[in-house]
Amino acid sequence: MNSSDKIIKVENLVKKFGDFAANDNISFSVEKGEIFGFLGPNGAGKTTAIKILSGLLRPTSGNIEVAGYDVYNESESIKQNIGYMSQKFSLYSDLTIYENIRFYGGIYGLSKQEINDGAEYYLQKLKLEKNRNKLVGELPLGWRQKLAFAIAILHKPHIVFLDEPTSGVDPVTRRQFWEMIYEAAEQGITPFVTTHYMDEAEYCERVSIMVDGRIEALGTPSELKERFSAQDINEVFLKIAGQKNEYSSD
Amino acid sequence: MEKAVIFEKIGKNFGNTQALENVSFSINEREIFGLIGPDGAGKTTLMRILATLYLPDRGKAYLQGENVVDNYRRIRKKIGYMPGEFSLYPDLTVEENLKFFASVFNTTIQENYDLIKGLYSHIRPFSSRKAGDLSGGMKQKLALSCALIHRPKVLILDEPNTGVDAVSRDELWKMLHYLKGEGLTILVSTPYMDEAEKCDRIALMQKGKVMSINSPDKIVSEFGHQLYKIECENIYKALNCLKESPQTGDAYLFGQSIHFVPARENFIPDNLRNNLSQQGIENCIIEPVQPDIEDCFIDLMKT
Q: The pTM is what?
């Protein structure tokens, strides 16, 4: 794989807040179209790293390129070329489905034509044509998540950051969601996924596990399971990140 | 055996929406019972009826033999309820929250400390921090401590692990098994199938109805189809081909593979392999695989 196929390049990333290193010399890269899982317990430094990769936060040191742009000097170009979706912040519940699409399309500078074409494509795909004027707040959670994902990739970004995308969603809807992720990857969009749910990590092509600001493991799910003699990614994760916390009274 | 909880034909509507329909089952003493189902299945509504926060429109519910509607004051002393949203006082400290909940139930932290010691020892270093400033895992531990401080008989936990990292989730399950050993009965809900396997028995719920109740092992053993796992280079492309194929009963993603249920009983893997190969999907590995709870749930949701 030559280096031009790397959509994210991180070399020796350090981010300090005072004396505290939230990211402590991490290096990794992600290939174009690869579904990459970015795992770690609360407080590991994932959010800090994602803010840096999205051009929202300046690193202390390190060489970092996202979609071919440098995070120090070209953060505005990075922002135009990425999409972001999280369970917490996604859509305006008091706007209709179509209004949300138009609003986000407008923010990313799409033309009227592009917005309308994108809206028709995804409304049809999500079988929401008849509900285009329904308020987003009236949609069940699973539909909202799928719509939020469609809107995050409406401007055909190079990378889409997905922050716990299917939290609280049932297994059937979750699969429909992952089919959309695979389709996006097929189209050359690189999905970068964070999640607390280790079964979701099994859907990624490669995963990294971050603990206390460092990447402690990186590989395909099957490589990691083999290396840590674990049955599933959850077991790998607990071996790397789990402390000995027994509850029985001591 | 003495029943800790009995639901008899419970029904509940909100306007035109039927949240629960004819739900009947019982929970044994010292059992960890899981309510498993998607958003909107009715899990929260059922828990709130047991917690005396909603009145059922139809049917009856009993907790240790007492009707939850008629005897709600006594019931409230017997249950510990942890709602899905963080419901402690964010502007009180960790210790103030715990003291408050103890005082509401006319008890003290000291009196029941042994029950929550394993939990509270993790958050004690932060006892003067405001509850609103705790991390997700710490909030969960504090909320559970507050739900336990009056030593309830039945613990009701509504999606305690949503948004919590895998290490804290694992710790919570160890805690639940410890509490079971201390004599508590636990009703816990989750949308996650891997947590279902940690319960003694589970009820799979969808759209207000209970579809199946059994031990996780039994539910899995009652999966009525042959199941195959398909591995190949481009699983997205393979999935799309399978969805068009007349040989397919069901096909869905399962991690980095596809789970496949044949349409007919006399399924020959080699035929499917050849078909896929004709469509440019080479080197498929097709082999039988044991179903797990997730396969069962997907199957039940289709009906």
A: 0.84
pLDDT per position as a tens digit, B59-106: 999 999 999 999 999 999 999 999 988 889 999 999 999 999 999 999
What residue ranges define each of the domains in chain A, with the CATH number in brackets?
Answer: 3-91+160-241 (3.40.50.300)
Instruction: Identify which of B39, B136, B297 has the shortest CB distance to residue A169.
Output: B39
Q: DSSP class of residue B40?
A: T
Helices and strands in chain A: count of H runs, count of E runs: 9, 10
Q: What is the pLDDT, as a whole number, of residue A246? A: 37
What ipTM does the predicted assembly reach? Answer: 0.79
Distance of CA B83 to the CA centre of its chain: 13
As a 3-state breakdown, chain B gives helix, strand, coil percent values, each rounded to 5, of: 40, 30, 35
User: Which residue among B165, B191, B253 places its CB closest to the CB of A196?
Assistant: B165
Reported residue count of chain B is: 303
Nearest-Cα residue of chain B relative to residue A235: B166
Distance CA A147, CA A136 (A): 9
A142: nearest CA partner in chain B: B39
Which residues of A are less than 8 Å from B252 in CB distance?
175
